[in-house]
Automatic annotation (TrEMBL):
Gene3D superfamilies: 2.30.42.10, 2.40.10.120. InterPro entries: PDZ, PDZ_sf, Pept_S1C_Do, Peptidase_S1_PA, Peptidase_S1C. This is Do family serine endopeptidase. Residues 1-25 form the signal peptide.
Length: 456
């Protein structure tokens, strides 16, 4: 919903309000026939799409045992012991699909949660199911079964400019839905260099509990998911960060389709384009991604990208930094074809590249089926064997007690009253078990032979 009210200048507004008699109890709704500007209509429209997220779970903490006291714990005692501690947490979320009940939040909000509750702005509460998450980008997708939901409209975050107005909506400190406003302070920000960071920086007040909430424009369209702050004093200091909605949408589509993020990879090594490098190559801007090396047999090598190239755009949108290019490529998904604007030897050209898939990443198997709890799974396709690999396993977990071992490759499953179905990838396994809670048999490839494992 666009604000149709033209903004009054601060001087006109202050002068006009000063002329209002203090004896008038009612605040004026207009001055000289011109309506006062207000974000209320937009906030009223967008608020039902922003939810509060509360979680409960158990964290495992390791307590070191000093050497002189290990005798009391037995000769085979480890150097430390693990203790399980319950925890509770609060955050925010955004409804992106009203019909299917899909909710976006941050991965760190729901990490290790055993129970996730969604509280709507109208007071309704629902238990949510985790569809999938991506720790590297801090995005998680939840699902609730509810009617009469309101979904947010997505903007194009690539069109944002520094100085654009922003509004943050979330649940800071568990107070309930709270609205703050500001501007886009910077774009393509990174914090510690880990993960795939391409943040929108804003001075709209963001505090603990705002994580996973909405950052919207004045049209009430989602431009980002609030995720982090710099807070030396422990509270808001006007430096908050949000994941651009275009990245969020790419990740969400992959999680919903495959049950995991199939990260795209270009196959280049490089860094930021500084003034010195730009002048050396005759480029009149310092915005871009400088390529120092192209990896052999990579998507970039196959497409003709060369060391010394400077990538200035991705699908027609300017690239500011190497970090921004890396983050956007990684979230577009393996198999996507992109158009890169390249500056080489004084000439500009456009090169099409089909992205390769990054090495498989693990997901917690408990979100697929309770019998798989304790295992981490990844898609597997090597040596003629294709399926889902148990890449990590907690030896005390239900998955281990059911007979799975680290390194097993699940190549097929049999459900009750159904025949055996081959399993070729993680997304397929997830889809087959998404609405199935009973016991099932898994055909497992282990040490060169196949065996059957009953998982219950």
């Amino acid at each position: 919903m666009k604000l149709n009210t033209p903004l009054l200048s601060a001087a006109v507004l202050c002068a006009s309000l000063a002329a209002v008699s203090p004896s008038h109890a009612a605040w004026p709704s207009s001055i000289d026939g011109q309506a006062l500007p207000s974000l209320a209509p937009m906030v009223e429209q967008i608020s039902p799409a922003v939810v509060s997220v509360s979680v409960e779970g158990t964290q495992v903490a390791r307590q070191n045992i000093p050497e002189p006291f290990r005798f009391f714990f037995g000769p085979n005692s480890p150097q430390g012991r693990e203790q399980s501690r319950p925890f509770r947490g609060l955050g925010s979320g955004v409804i992106i699909d009203a019909k299917k009940g899909h909710v976006i939040t941050n991965h760190h909000v729901i990490d290790n949660a055993d129970k996730i509750l969604i509280n709507l702005s109208d007071g309704r509460e629902y238990e949510a199911k985790l569809i999938g998450s991506d720790p590297a980008t801090d995005v998680a997708v939840l699902k609730i079964e509810a009617d009469d939901l309101t979904a947010v409209t997505l903007a194009d975050s690539d069109t944002l400019k520094v100085g654009d107005f922003t509004v943050a909506i979330g649940n800071p400190f568990g107070l309930g839905q709270t609205v703050t406003s500001g501007i886009v302070s910077a774009l393509s920000r990174g914090l510690d260099g880990d993960g795939y960071q391409n943040f929108i920086q804003t001075d709209a007040a963001i505090n603990s509990g705002n994580s996973g909430g909405a950052l919207v424009n004045l049209n009430g369209e989602l431009i980002g998911i609030n995720t982090a702050i710099i807070a030396p004093s422990g509270g808001n200091v006007g430096i908050g960060f949000a994941i651009p909605v275009n990245m969020v949408q790419n990740l969400t589509n992959q999680i919903l389709e495959f049950g995991e993020v199939r990260r795209g990879v270009l196959g280049i090594i490089g860094g930021p384009l500084n003034n010195e490098t730009a002048k050396l190559f005759g480029l009149d801007t310092k915005h871009g991604a400088y390529i120092s090396q192209v990896l052999p047999d990579s998507a970039a090598a196959e497409a003709g990208i060369e060391a010394g190239d400077i990538i200035t755009s991705l699908n027609g949108k300017n690239i500011r930094t190497f970090q921004e290019l890396r983050a956007k490529i990684a979230t577009m998904g393996a198999g996507a074809t992109v158009k890169l604007g390249v500056f080489r030897d004084g000439d500009r050209k456009t090169i099409k590249v089909t992205l390769n898939e990054a090495p498989g990443e693990n997901i917690q198997a408990s979100i697929i089926h309770p019998a798989l709890e304790g295992a981490k799974l990844s898609s597997y396709n090597e040596g003629g064997i294709r399926g889902v690999r148990v890449s990590e396993l907690d030896e005390r977990s239900p998955a281990a007690r059911n007979g799975l071992q680290s390194g097993d490759v699940i190549i097929g499953i049999s459900l009750l009253n159904r025949g055996r179905v081959p399993v070729q990838e993680l997304g397929q396994l997830r889809e087959m078990l998404s609405e199935y809670d009973g016991a099932f048999a898994a055909t497992v490839h282990r040490d060169g032979s196949n065996l059957m494992v009953i998982l219950r």
